[in-house]
Amino acid sequence: MTPTCSDTYVPLESPRKSTYPTQKEKQVKHVGIILYEGFSLLDAGTLAEALHVANELQSEDPNQSMTYRVNLVSARGGAVSCSSSMPVWTEHLPARHVDRLDILFVPGGSGVARASADDMLIDLLRLVSTKSINVTAIGNGHMVLSAAGVTPREWPSMRHGIHLKSSSASVCGDDRDLALMTSLALVKTDLGAELAVRVANRLGSAGGHSLASSFEEADDSTLAEKARASARWLVQNCVKPISVGDAARMFAMSERNFLRLFKREVGVTPSKYLLHARLDLTCKMLANSDLPVDKIARRTGLSNGERLSKLFRKELSMSPTEFRARNRRKN
Predict the structure, then answer these.
(1) Nearest to 173 by CA among 142, 145, 214, 143
(2) What CATH superfamily is the domain 1-153?
(3) What is the CA radius of gyration of the chain?
(4) What angle separates helix 320-330 from helix 270-288, to the nearest 10 degrees?
(5) In whole angstroms, what is the distance from residue 65 CA to residue 331 CA?
(6) Coil/strand/helix, residue 185
(7) What's the pLDDT tens digit per position in 97-155?
């Protein structure tokens, strides 16, 4: 799986186009894969192949929005041998060219221990981490980042520990699937889940199973977790003057997608859920305190006593004062 996709590669010395497209230019994302002696060719090749396929699939769309440009780089440049002793030519990544990258991947491999002790590589990774460049690892490549004290990018669309269940899948196949899942996370973040699934369908899985299905399942699980987390956030912050838009931004989603996801996973709209959280807190304060209704309304995010009274009559068919009296008699 040696990377040979010519349309995906450009020299690092080439002038970097802005990642913000003009009216006539497509967005270009410059992806670096930093190699070291004993790196996994499978990790690096799978990533490059996935991005090449993403470029191909986008080329079918006249409204193609972005192109990936991949650079194989190293701390010293020249030929670097992978874990199977095959040499791969790399570009030197000098400090002055670090800013030409948007994202940098560190593949895994049998040489991670030696790479973790390579001062030149470690210093370079530390320099990259000070820039506005996302850094992430594939497989056990995280050991190199850990040695450099660099925190890898955590993709919001992926879970760690995703494994395709196949008794016939080899270790090599599992490694490829893990590398491909990491690649798909990047594609999904940049270009959406639909294109990521198309890339998965094109490349398939070494275990003979549909990687697209596994990716969709992992994505669905992550979205469900995000919806439940947002519901907890709404309850925890219901006393504050928050809105649905605040919740959507908190969980890095558009308001439209957040509304759709929340309703699907929780069963009600986020605004309704927030209102019920505020009313529930209000009921507890009415039953367990002697605070005036207007003060309770302000403390539970319901603005004032007049609004609280209207909501109580609409939702509970009684006034706050009646609710307090009934619950005091019960107690």
Answers:
(1) 214
(2) Class I glutamine amidotransferase (GATase) domain (3.40.50.880)
(3) 26
(4) 50
(5) 64
(6) helix
(7) 778 888 999 999 999 999 999 999 999 999 988 887 888 888 888 899 889 888 766 54
